[in-house]
Amino acid sequence: MNAKNHDFDLIIVGAGPAGFACAYQLRNQDLKIAIIDQATFPRDKICGDALSADVVNQLYRMDQSLGEKFESFAQKIDSHGVRFVAPNHSFLDINYQNPNHGNAAGYISKRIDFDHFLFHQIKNQSNIEVFQSEKVLDIRRNAEGIELKTDKRQLIARMMIGADGAHSIVNRKLGSIKVEKDHYCAGIRQYFEGVTGFHANQHIELHFYKELLPGYFWIFPLPNGQANVGLGMLSSEVSKKKIDLKKALSDLIQSKPDLKERFKNAKALEKPQGFGLPIGSKKRPISGDRFLLLGDAASLIDPFTGEGIGNALRSGRIASEYIFKAFKNQNFTADYLRKYDQMVYHKMWNELRISRRIQMLLRYPKLFNFVVNRANKNSSVRTLLTSMLDNVDLKKELVKPKFYLKLFFGG
Questions:
Q1: Which of 130, 187, 227, 408 sits 20 to 30 Å CA-CA off 46?
Q2: Do 56 and 119 lie in a common domain?
Q3: Are residues 62 and 189 in the same domain?
Q4: pTM for the complete prediction?
């Protein structure tokens, strides 16, 4: 499988969770791999910083020792649940169910720390060469392979992986995913210290204020008494309502009575940072001749929660299987690699589709208020909603009219 007239067998653009997972799974294969990232680690990644149970599970699926290393990783805190705040300001606390590994079903860790932890696991692998602080300027495909030009060098490989995020140059040069405002979210994040009023079990908080729907405002506790605060909205809504996200974030903190009290002694640690989230609310082609797209570059972010790390890791893990097969069979054609698309959507589409429908239900604030009020009064409803967090089949019930009819009539 070794490269002959190529510098590398495989070039992975992007060293975040998706690129990491792909490289890690191929670390013991007879493949010469290059990873190129425009930043130098440790580096920040604008994100909510919450790590779901699926993130932990993906690490364990890749390697038991990797999961165990993460469990002992110090730069994180346990999170044992989520608080949903309805448009009428009533709230519902839901505890995560028992984790499959470790002491918590969820964690929160700054991406500068979590991504550096992942990066540390691959940077010294014998078949992997890492190029940091190199910006990819151009990518061209020919009959022999794919040529890549950075601001420092030119390389050619048999195959390329786009794990370079929402603004992927691999997708731009080789793929066909376009930004569609109704399938894209705009987000903004700001770190604070001194925010008060967190749940004792460090629940993450999702506040569904009427003016943001179908988006939400979030507050996530962080290590060292800090907090990740932000909001995300569909780009189509931002455009239609002409919303300035930075101003909206500041206005919410200063005007909402429940927030104003909690932030009265808080200190902002940075200016608001904007970012884009290409959500997985429609199927798209995520492969082609000699390339695969992973994670955010493949638009695999959950439409309802905005969470993308678990799917990034999963897509990298799945991609490694099809990369190995492609080299084994010396077949890098679009037709052959389309099997990757099929497997990704086989594993993820059901949940992505349901999450999109739940996102659309958020356009009806009275419905959200009703569900939260019923759950607070009825332990059976609360138990059902808890189970829905991790069970896709149960989550389907949320998009069926009969679920709300049962709630209305006390079923």
A1: 130
A2: yes
A3: no
A4: 0.93
